[in-house]
Amino acid sequence: MYAVIMAGGRGSRFWPRSRESKPKHLLDIVSDKTIIRETVDRIRPLIPPEKTLVVTGQSHAGELIRQLPEIPKENIIIEPVGRNTAPCIGLAALHIRRKTPDAVMLVLPSDHLIADENGFRNILEAAAAMAKRGDYLVTIGIRPTGPETGYGYIERGQEQAAVMGETVYGVRSVREKPDLVQAQAMMAQGGFFWNSGMFVWQVSTILDALKQWLPDLYDGLLQIETALGMPREVAVITEVYENARSISIDYGVMEKARNTLVIPGDFGWSDVGSWDALWEASPRDEQGNAVRGEAVAIDSRNCLVHSPGKTVALVGVEDLIIVETDDALLICKRGRSQDVRKVVDRLETEHRHELL
Questions:
Q1: Is 240's pLDDT higher than 90?
Q2: How far apart are CA 3 and CA 235, in angstroms?
């Protein structure tokens, strides 16, 4: 069994902590460890470092090698340009097939928060056992706690099996992120799970699925496979990626395939996709304030303060997000942190590259 950790993206919703040179997964936003460090440590009891692959961009590879010294350098797979998750997963599958053609492959994002790590590993083991039984594309569905519009959804079908104490269902549909009315309707109907973006399958199964549903990408992957380990490897990968569509594995494969299964998970999951999500996931004082660093709160409630370098005084305020760095200060109404990316867009338009 191998693990593939997808470590791309910018994390622009976590500006000003997250920058192009150091996106969210390389930061210690959630705890004293960086998020990628927590992700690797979480699966360590299941998968050793030599069978853990991390897919990233060139600009972040050096920092990943520094933060994850136990992972062999050849297991840090570099994409020349980001093309979403389908090419990322296909490239990693090629590397695994060279070593172990019949391997089971876990695909995990690099930047999630999981409270119950033992429960999480139990689900992964059950998913891997199911994947070994046949040509199944197994995904982990999160039991929803409300009509969230920030996640995609998986609609479960009929019960298919029980594995290691976990129930496995067929998948009736995979849905894109809904609007609020659609999310409320799905919650009322029942049988829907949040799409965690975590997958388990045999290497041969996912490559066959890419061949069927994304044949252009699959043809490019075959070109890459012939060049792996050769002097022309980087040039071939670069050419294939330059011509590849940017497409997610959900849209490209999971929404179309008929051999998909879902295992429900309830292990304290969050994708920590924004400062609001961090407030939700953080311990809070009696006034609902979540503080990282130093803060003095007077008659102030339900605020997030992330200020390792300065003491922040709050007086008579509520529902604020306050994030301090050496060169920037973010003050945002809680509930609006998805719009922090608009700040990044504005800075790009104004060519303020020193702040990106």
A1: yes
A2: 26
